[in-house]
Please model this.
Amino acid sequence: MGCCQACCKCCPGNKRDEEEDERWQPLMDRSCTDVIALVIFILFWIGMFFIAAYSIAGGNAYRLAYGTDSYGNVCGMKNDKIADINLKSAGLDMTGRPYVFFMDITSPKDALEICVQKCPDKDLNNIQEIQDFAKNTSSSLCEYDIKQADIVPAGQSHLGPCPNTPVKASTSFLNRCVPKDAPDFLVKFMAILNSYDIFYKVLSDVFQARAEIAGMCILAVVIALLMVALIRFVAGVVMWIFMAIVAVASIIGTALLWWTYATKRQEYYALPENERLDENGDDVTAFLVYSIIATIATVVLLIILVVMRKRVKLVVALFHEAGKVFMHTPFLVLQPLWTFIALALFFIYWTAVLVFLATAGEPTVDTSTGWVTYQDPEPVRYMWWYHVVGLLWTSEFFLACQQMVIAGAVTQVYFTRDKKQVSSPILKATGRLISYHLGSVAIGSFIIVLVKIPRLILTYIQAKLKDKENQCVQFTLKCCICCLWCLENCLKYLNYNAYTVIAIEGTSFCTAARRAFLALVSNALRVVAINSVGDFVLFLGKLGVVAIVGAISLIIFRTDTRLHYYAVPILVICVFAFFIAHCFLSVYEMVVDTLLLCFCEDCRINDGSPGREYYMDKSLLEFVENSSEALKNLDKKKKKEAANANEHVELRETTNSSNKADYV
Model:
């Protein structure tokens, strides 16, 4: 696989940087990076497989899905005797009893649970009504050994054998009997589910329009692809219009504030001094302050726009170059699809293991009640945390792999002088990732997890303390969560740029992150231009896809007599269209970010002199200080390469002709 250096190269500095710059050749010889991180990730996944094996061997997912009674029987299924559990009500056939009934729903943890054939559909106010319900429905609400004739004298308690009265009318939720009038969000949700006027009509509309929804999603994919192809042509116009609108709006807003201040001041001093109110004077002063602030902000904004003018030109040029990259690698837009499939399969696996882990307790008999309880062994409590970390780390790992593949494909296109020689950049980028850089991806994704876990813990604590009166704690938690969220997003952006440097130079993650950070800091204005104006253009592209698909859907559904609320399928279509457009245009955004860093690295290493010509396209050379000299050197190199090629052809023809003469 090309791994020849089994050591972690992750170090904050490198004394050989200048020497490496002298002999810099992107995409050339490389070796394995961050091998120790990869080994740790593999060992971590061995632990994940151990948890899966332990959970499947000791868990019973049916207990969670169908529910159990207090004797360990799974409702709705035939049960076997539990080892070391000698209870007469354990191991019974509950095939005809699919619902769990609580003897006292107000305190379900302390109440006896049994499997019943039917939940009570009406209030039962005394023991006689419980007996009548059992006779009419053949569904007894008492313990299994209590016959119908013996229900009245059997006795009532939350511990059995019969339930306390009144027994409220219940409905089934997840195979559990839940009172219909209980003030609980589950019951409210069930009320919505059981509302034929709302929920079923909505589901019916979505089902009736399923073919149209699928067709509109396919149309959204087509329009998003067209948007990716066309956005490079309209990006420049949109950016300049956007900047012009911002400048004009700022000037007009400032002028209106000064006009309002002048009007108010004139009206104020036009009044006799004894009729002037303090409120009017404060109003005049306030508008004066607003006008001064707006003037300062407008001047600063106009200066920024003038300074950013050339950077915006660079953004436009990068958008054009991104379009050219997609011409060489059209399948690049499909990378989110493979990532989605991988994440979906992993999440299915993770959820299945979670269900088994939740039911991996050991059955024991509670001596105080005589019921079967399941106790989690001590290791299971740590397995929960391990499994959650596995979800976060693996998800981030898959996303980082996608970013590395995109960065690798784009860098190959950028650093290939003759674009006609570009072949299979996505496959080659995937091969380099698997062969050399899985360790770098593992360490980059783990850094995100280290920030995400504290943020999720603080979010959980905030939710628990939501109803508390201590506002200071709430404010502190929100500030910490916000700071961690900002740090997480900054690290994600830095990570992607580090992956780009790794794709270019094959360095370790820490070295690549350091170089990426220095490149971003030294090109801060360019980064700001791309992450403001560029992202705005891409956001308009997403809205454009949603608007087109939504308008077509409105035309189709407005006369459809099958639907109760035709706005529902239109809303579903618009949501899907936005996510589809986001998937495709987010790839475009990553391509632009990669091209910017390639451009910065190209400028840092090369100077356009003979032997150190720029790799960038001619459209980007105008943003280099010595662009004219670089163009001359590039033309000289191309002429020299063409002359060498012609000499080679002539030499080959001369050799062939001499060989023929010798043969004759």
Notes: The chain has 19 helices and six strands. Residues 210-270 form the longest helix (61 residues). The radius of gyration is 35 Å.
